Amino acid sequence: MEPEEGAGVGSLIENRGSYVEADLRVGLKCGNSQCYHQFTACMHVELLGIPRERAGVADLELEAATLGQALALLAARFPDLGEFIAGGSLHPSLAANLNGDEFITDPRRALADSDHLLILSADVGG
Amino acid sequence: MPPGYHGFYLRIDAGTGTATRVPLPEEVVRQYLGGSGLGARLLLDQGSAVSDPLAPEAPIVFAFSPLVGSPLTTSAKFAVVSKSPLTNRINDSLASSGFALAGKRCGCDAIVIVGRAPELSVLVIDDGDVRLEAADDVRGESCPATEEKLRARLGSDYRIASIGPAGERAVRYATISHDGRHAGRGGSGAVLGSKRIKAIAVRGKQYCEFADPKRVTELSRDLSKRSFGPATAKYRELGTATNLLTFNRFGTLPTRNFQSGTFEEAINLSPQELAAQREKTRASCVACTIGCEHIYAVGRTPQSGAGDPHSSPAGVRVEYESLFALGSLCGVGDSDAVLRASQRCDELGIDTISTGGTIAFAMECVERGLLDESWLRFGDGAAMLRAIELIGRREGIGALLGEGSRRAAEQIGRGSLAFAPQVKGLEIPGYEPRALQTMALGFAVGARGADHNRSGAYEVDFSDKVDRRNATLESVRHAIETEDRAALMDSLILCKFLRGVFTDIYAESSAMLRAVTGWDVTADELRATARRIVAAKHQFNVLAGWTLDEDTLPDRFLDRALPNDPAALLTRESLDALIAEYHRQRAELS
Q1: Structural domain boundaries of chain B?
Q2: Which of B96, B324, B398, B558 gives 20 to 30 Å between its CA and that of B351?
Q3: Superfamily of B8-203 according to CATH
Q4: Looking at beta carbons, which residues of chain B come within 8 Å of A105?
């Protein structure tokens, strides 16, 4: 079940609002790593800089299948992060990093169990 | 001359205390705008590339810009441009805030100072009239005390830029301070000190008009509104130190003279921890809506109480670069020692990055048995503070360390140049080059040496555009883009903390410039302008003796992985390829 052309998964998630988490836990596996309806991953999320300041926590566990879903869940859980997250994407002033190695931006990017997602301020320097 | 400009610069001979109003052709200001760009062009015109930067004839330029005096947020800034006594290459440092407004109201777009005063003096520019006054009462005074005494003497409507004791003694990384902020890098304070100018006091009443005042107001309102948004949240909420823990987490926080990228006591230096332990206030420059200054009380921890002998009511403005250089780089995790060190650097008028970098280098020399100063050890905050005092007075080991890490290494010898943390003589800021390789390129090719304000390539490393630990030729164009953007912002002038609010900085800047000057300037023209300014700085360096082999990094960073991160390996071959591609693309763009 590919997302519709031109309609990112992020917006789909945003439209589903509070049903997102329940849907994710149903987990309709189709084998496509880009697919929205895959099993969710249980990952560790670490917040740094402004995201940590706004959320008031340094890290947490989250279940999501894609970056967009993870961000939507964060926005729902921490309203003060809301202005940084729209349509499953981060405002350019924040960045997402996977496992300390790779910076990722695509909301459809699949996440795996045991992934470590870091959310930080993007314009890093002074 | 178009609105936004006076069409003149003041050329002042400090030897005689006389000034000449020199016309500035419109084509010059259109090609170089103001700030760093205009300063570079004026330096070239003065033929100063071959001068000893501390010789009387060497010019130092204070350049304003067309946006100074407008309501555009963060535009109250000035650039100080000269040949650097630290690098012998071009140096441009920027500072805020009221000095820029008052200086421009003196009826000039720049002030060029040559010559040497007969005695330590205050240069007073009163609405364009120039005189020298004795500075005996402020000799040896700190930067804040100098400003305070001179305002009391001259009047509170003067805005004053001053040097501290370090500038008087020609410490090669001495700063010029104004209102708590510093034109910090490259030793412009030593250049002013060599002219026996302790301070410059300016006031004036000559305002520039705008071509389209209504449009300027509209653009200003829009920019101010956006400056309150998410793009600048980090500066408002935590300050430039926001990502200190992020850097530590990614193994890119330079520690113990770049021997590691992680610091076990980093948490002590984080803004969150500082705020939990201390009183904090916020401030902003004149005409700024961001308010990035986070000022922490020094010595007033709940544990120490008000009786702490080191307690200071003034507090200290904390920046990431100061925390890194005087903290992790020296292995000092005692936040109070780091804050006091930062405060002393501000008072003495020395650049915190070069101070920390040079002391950290000396600490490693002691550790390796290359320097007989056994008291100077990594992690010892009291020793660091002692070293700072000695540098400010140029006494004992301070005489050597006041020369900067490259000259110190050349004197110490025995292979120490390999780990002197500098490029072209300028100490490296707080970004580990092996783990941030696009930034490594930016450091290597920077006209003023290793620098994070003239190349913002660290942003590229912290993005999905490149692999930060495996730079490819694709990194080069990103490095060039950030360098060009910095050249534009430093010449317009706008604070770089605004950079995140722009969707297309060239298009938006051209709109501002059109409204202020009336020029039919386009985004493409400003792109070409930015490249011209970068090229002018390079041209100065070529005339000063630049050769390609100085575009590099110290041996420490090449062919050996960062100890805490085996994947962070930058080979000499790879860096050389990046540098060659950089110069190829620059040549193509010029």
Answers
A1: 8-203, 228-427
A2: B558
A3: Aldehyde ferredoxin oxidoreductase, N-terminal domain (3.60.9.10)
A4: 464
The pLDDT value given to residue B483 = 97
Instruction: Confirm or reject contact between A80 and chain B (CB < 8 A).
Output: no
Place of tokens 């302790």: B198
- Residue A96, SS3? strand
H or E stretch at B121: strand B121-126
CB B405 within 8 A of CB B258: no
Contact list in B for residue A121 (CB cut-off 8 A) is 234, 242-243, 246
- What is the residue type of B191? V
pLDDT tens for residues B177-191? 999 999 999 999 999
A95 to chain B: which residues are within 8 Å by CB?
A: 462-463
ipTM: 0.91
CATH class of B228-427: mainly alpha
Q: What is the pLDDT of residues B272-319, one digit of tens each?
A: 999 998 999 999 999 899 999 999 998 755 444 444 444 455 689 999
Please name the residue of chain A whose CA is at the shortest distance from the CA of residue B320. Answer: A126
Closest to B109 in 3D by CA, of B160, B68, B59, B60: B68
Q: Please list every residue in chain B whose beta carbon sits closer than 8 Å to the beta carbon of residue A125.
A: 240, 243, 320, 430-431, 452, 456, 458-459
Q: Do B459 and A125 touch (CB under 8 A)?
A: yes
Q: What is the pLDDT of residue B299?
A: 72
Beta strands in B460-529 (DSSP E): none
State residue A39's pLDDT score. 62
Distance CA B415, CA B417 (A): 6
CA dist B455 → B346, B386, B471 (Å): 24, 33, 16
- Hey, what are A78's tokens? 């921490």
Residue written as token pair 């904390």:
B318
Do B230 and A124 lie within an 8 Å CB cutoff? no
Cβ neighbors of B473 (< 8 A, separation 6 or more) are B577, B578, B581
Q: How far is B27 from chain A (nearest CA, A)?
A: 34
- Mean pLDDT of all residues in B490-506: 95
Structure tokens at B471: 């730079």
The model's pLDDT over B100-128, given as tens digits with 9 standing for 90+, comes to 999 999 999 999 999 999 999 999 999 98
For all residues of chain B together, what is the average pLDDT? 95
Does B250 reach chain A within 8 Å, measured CB to CB? yes
Q: What is the pLDDT of residues A61-98, one digit of tens each?
A: 999 999 999 999 999 999 999 999 998 899 999 999 99
- Choose among B496, B498, B519: nearest CA to B5: B519
Burial letters B46-59, b for 16+ CB under 10 A, else e: bebbebebbebebb
B567 vs chain A: nearest CA distance in angstroms? 10
Q: How far apart are CA B202 and CA B204, in angstroms?
A: 7
CB of B145 closer than 8 Å to CB of B42? no
Of A120, A122, A126, the CB nearest to B321: A126
Q: CB of B270 within 8 Å of any CB in chain A? A: no
How would residue B258 be classed by pLDDT, with cut points 50, 70 and 90?
very high
- Per the CB < 8 Å rule, is A124 touching B463? no
